[in-house]
Design goal:
The protein folds into two domains: 236 residues, Alkaline Phosphatase, subunit A (3-Layer(aba) Sandwich), CATH 3.40.720.10; 104 residues, 2-Layer Sandwich (Gyrase A, domain 2), CATH 3.30.1360. It is 30% helix and 21% strand. The chain is built from 14 helices and 17 strands. The strands form five sheets. It has a seven-stranded mixed beta sheet, with helices on both faces. The protein has a four-stranded antiparallel beta sheet with strand order 11-12-14-13. A two-stranded antiparallel sheet has the order 3-4. Strand 11 and strand 12 form a beta hairpin. The radius of gyration is 20 Å and the shape is globular.
Length: 378
Amino acid sequence: MTAAPEPAGFTPPAYGDRSLADVVPSVARALGVELDGHPVGLELPPAPSYVVFLIDGMGAKLLARYAHSAPYLSSLLDGAAIGTAGVPSTTATSLTSLGTGLVPGAHGLVGFTARIPGTDRLLNHLWWDKGVDPVEWQPHPTALGRLAHAGVHVTSVNKRDFDGSGLTVASQRGATYVGADRVGERIAATVAASAGQPSLTYVYDSDLDWTGHKFGVASTQWLQQLAMVDAEAEQLREALPASTRLLVVADHGMVDSPRDARIDVDEVHGMRDGVALLGGEARFRHLYCAAGAVPDVVATWREVLGDRATVLTREEAIGRGWFGAVSPGVLPRLGDVMVACHDDTAVMSSRDFAYEDTLVGLHGSLTPAEMLIPILVG
């Protein structure tokens, strides 16, 4: 079995330099606090307080392409650093890297869905499962919690529904949580939280990502939502004192996947053979294989997908550094085989993931449109 070449169009994660896992340790240094064990490649200006505003789905390529719809954010692009998501480029993985300061192979949230080891079930990392303890699933102290322990005022401003969720506990425990559902609430809560010094206030907006999934990133709806989040960022900057730095980042970008670019594994003969459990998401699939079936599954999927995706064994993907250093407990959560889509290809399952096929915009793979994220200092 020959290894599939990694396409030149993929962007590798910049772990230890400019990845999401490096953001909070870099902010910590700017606040005058060192988080031991975290190399810092991202240099940020010193300040007594920082606000980290994460805009879900606002990839660097999208922001540059549609700069006219985001005049404030695009005004910060000149000279700004370009960072990367981790792998896969998906919300649960990215938010956990940001909050913990860890690569996916360490924190273990390795996709939208991943197998619960020893079972034939998937854990959906966004919606979670009451039978899975998030502290056991992600046992490491978070970077946010470590900052709080060091005497920094650390606050997470987010929707009330997310308070105490599995993903929140896994990624943000140790921060004081403030529920705020509307833009005005979020800005007011952020200003109040950031008044303490030193402080780090994390604020999150998911509406751009939702709009991209539903209507696509080439849609009028998405451009209007980009304009709205741009105004939110500008209003937040204006409401904060000059001494507080505003750091705007994203968790991933997005690509639109048209109908003719989609492959349904339940309609293609042989693609289910040897696959005991299908996980991940449409742009980055984890294939959990029956015993001894890996070589045949790799051969079949490479033949069917050709140059539309990179198909790797678990060992090959780890060897390419996609997840950073992988902890032994995380290893069985990764697919025996992984499929990273090229261009606008998506691998669907009408049987297991019917909802995904209703979405227009998708993410998860390693294309620049998905991986590259802005790191904007205001």
